[in-house]
Amino acid sequence: MTDTGHTQVGHTFKSNGTWDTNSHQIVEEIDKPKLHLEFVNQELSNADAHSIVTWASSTFGDGLVMSTSFGIQAAVMLHLVTQIIPDIPVIWVDTGYLPSETYRFADELTKRLNLNLKVYQSPLSPARMETLYGKLWDQNDLDSLNLYDKLRKVEPMQRALKELNATAWLAGIRRDQTNHRKTLRLVDVQAERYKIHPILTWNARDIYQYLTAHDLPYHPYFDLGYVTVGDWHSSRPLMADDENERNTRFNGLKQECGLHLPLTPEEAQSLDASSL
């Protein structure tokens, strides 16, 4: 695996969950195409996922990246996109708390699909985070979970997007997963970058059919009853009384980990101060 972004030189960790480099605030200027989103979404409304990825490739060129969690259905997007853009940078945020099966699954898919994998982690080690804050996932409150996600997921992802000079980001999220995702468009903007969702309108049957047609694997936890998997401490199998698959994550306290949510002004300022 290609491993980048594992260290962040010159960061001073602050007690409020930010990093300070004692430098001037950095304001990012991204040279990206100017799109009329209503027109673009109308034009792509009847396009299939392959066509949407092809459009994104021709529109954004080297500025296009994709993300993966190596979750239950990750093979779909990884295969779909790399059949069209073989060398696309694939961002994986490794929280340091993933199940061992996820690391093995990631290795399997990376080798099989010859992924151009870019691994990013928080500059704050799991041991140091737990010393400073305790087990944030085990405190049964939303503020602790939000801080955990900011430290282990959002900051590394934003750093990856900047270091890779990304102007657009392909993500394999679907409308049927969370309330927030129901509101998304095929092409949107998040944190000053375009975000493209090729399988936004797919459902579980579409996923199954694609995996079967291309002889692709589910994550090993699928056979254990998981429909979504993230960190080992915040994921569980689906139960009969679960109203939504995302109820199996984060102790049911939240549906989103923050990667696919807009940054608040405070978060954007904090990330700028950390040399993002």
Automatic annotation (TrEMBL):
Protein name per Swiss-Prot or TrEMBL: Phosphoadenosine 5'-phosphosulfate reductase
Read off the PANTHER family from this record.
PHOSPHOADENOSINE PHOSPHOSULFATE REDUCTASE
Q: Which UniProt keywords apply?
A: Cytoplasm, Oxidoreductase
Q: Pathway it acts in?
A: Sulfur metabolism; hydrogen sulfide biosynthesis; sulfite from sulfate: step 3/3
State the reactions this protein catalyses: [thioredoxin]-disulfide + sulfite + adenosine 3',5'-bisphosphate + 2 H(+) = [thioredoxin]-dithiol + 3'-phosphoadenylyl sulfate
This entry's Enzyme Commission designation comes to 1.8.4.8
Q: Which GO terms describe its cellular component?
A: cytoplasm
Q: Where does the protein principally reside?
A: cytoplasm
- Top-level class of the enzyme under EC nomenclature: oxidoreductase
Active site per the UniProt annotation: 257 (nucleophile)
Kindly state a single biological-process term from the GO annotations of this entry.
Answer: hydrogen sulfide biosynthetic process
What HAMAP family does this protein's entry cite?
Answer: CysH (MF_00063)
Q: List the source organism.
A: Aphanothece hegewaldii CCALA 016
Where located? Cytoplasm
Q: Give the matching InterPro entries.
A: PAPS/APS_Rdtase (IPR004511), PAPS_reduct_dom (IPR002500), PAPS_reductase_CysH (IPR011800), Rossmann-like_a/b/a_fold (IPR014729)
Q: Which residues form the Phosphoadenosine phosphosulphate reductase domain?
A: 64-237
MF terms per GO, please? phosphoadenylyl-sulfate reductase (thioredoxin) activity
NCBIfam families given in the database record: cysH, PAPS_reductase, PRK02090.1
Purpose: Catalyzes the formation of sulfite from phosphoadenosine 5'-phosphosulfate (PAPS) using thioredoxin as an electron donor.
Q: Which family does it belong to?
A: Belongs to the PAPS reductase family. CysH subfamily.
